[in-house]
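== Sequence, structure tokens ==
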Amino acid sequence: MFLEQKGNKTQKKGWIEVVCGSMFSGKTEELIRRLKRAEFAQQKVEIFKPAIDIRYDDENVVSHVGTSIRSTPVPSSGNILLLANAVDVIGIDEAQFFDDELPEVCEKLANSGIRVIIAGLDMDFTGKPFGPIPDLLSKAEFVTKVHAICMHCGDLAQYSHRKTKNEELVLLGEIEEYEPLCRKCFNLVTNR
């Protein structure tokens, strides 16, 4: 945590970090890595995830490779403000599933001196910007785009192709429902 001197007072400087990319690109793994480093540095850390995400665990944030960290499931982004007391760092996983108030919540947290680390899909299964992520990307001081490997050709993948015919925007799933694809392969399978 950076400290800034203002007159005789020292204040914490907050900021926003976004880790984004396709499914299976390591977003949650990177979020957990950053949060565990903050804990190692003896910073007070709180982690939140959307209450609807119960794929691996009802409470913990769990990556596809099984790395986990304790978290608090919340129904909306406003709950994060209510539960973020006396913390140095806040982690937010699966940010694309939160409401459109999440960017404002993150700005309030950062303005109060908290480091906010967010992980989420930047595009939905159709290749369109997903939920509050585009707004968060524009407000973040640090953006990390991670990539998966295309399941068709082996190039870098940035798309989360849905293999099932379900057209609902939010469909929690894993490798049975989704596969990471590069631009060329995504365009071929979606007939763009």
Q: What stands out?
A: The mean pLDDT is 87. The CA atoms of residues 21 and 146 lie 5 Å apart.
